[in-house]
């Protein structure tokens, strides 16, 4: 009798879990229409776009599944190396996607829509884990803590500046200005020479960008707080990851720019130090190529 009661309770819990999962799926925001096709062979240099928003459409061109997963989960797992596993075609097969959504869809809902699309159309299954992995620690290069010639503390706070600008208490950003001349605006150019220009950014933002191009997760060990005005230029390694795909192989001409490691030290007064650390990871358990439509 007691065993029967236990089995009934277990069955009730399982049924409740299934019902809750169904409710969660029904409540999850979804794209109105999704079109997925394999990308045709490139005619000339390959242009890559993964997760661009244009009006009420979410677009991807020549995007691999790994790029799409980064778009869906990059806020929690922003660094290269934190997305682990997956099928052999994860970085080779490329897809063109057009997804329609309701006007005014928020960025958070859009991210949930991408996750749902990957689960529905790519049969993507993931789980979270902790993994020890090689990382770069971003540290101060000089014992006296002095920063380099291209980095200085912003005289102000970007959160406050943006709030005052939104209220009309400060003039809007000058669209003709570039880089450090635009307070609290950051622009990054990805090419054979990567250039990061900022009129005010947190170290966390810099760390995320460096993680994309260094080949390892980068963790902040500088102890620096606040916002910084900076300019960083360095030669990008061939095949380095960016939000738009890997950087193209080098041309015949040599690139006249320092390496990432030299540039960070000479220009910013910071340093990348090789270490091992335990980080959150997203483990890809399974995925399948989608049917085209």
> Helix count?
6
- Biggest sheet, in brief? 4 strands, antiparallel
Mean pLDDT: 83
**N-to-C series of helices and strands:** HEEEHEEHEEHEEHEEHE
Helix fraction? Answer: 25-40%
- How many structurally independent domains? 2
Instruction: Name the quaternary structure.
Output: single chain
| Strand content range | 25-35%
Which structural class best describes the helix and strand composition?
alpha+beta
Rounded to the nearest angstrom, the distance between the terminal CA atoms is 54 Å
Show unreliable segments. 14-25
How many DSSP E strands? 12
Please state how the strands of the largest beta sheet are arranged side by side.
Answer: 1-5-3-2
Describe this structure in words.
By secondary structure, the chain is of the alpha+beta class. The chain folds into two domains: 28-131 and 280-286, no CATH class; 132-279, no CATH class. 27% of the residues lie in helices and 31% in strands. The protein has six helices and twelve strands. The strands form three sheets. Strands 1-5-3-2 form a four-stranded antiparallel β-sheet. A hairpin with a 2-residue loop joins strand 2 (49-54) and strand 3. The longest helix has 26 residues, at 2-27. The protein starts with a helix and ends in a 7-residue tail after the last strand. Mean pLDDT is 83; it is low at 14-25.
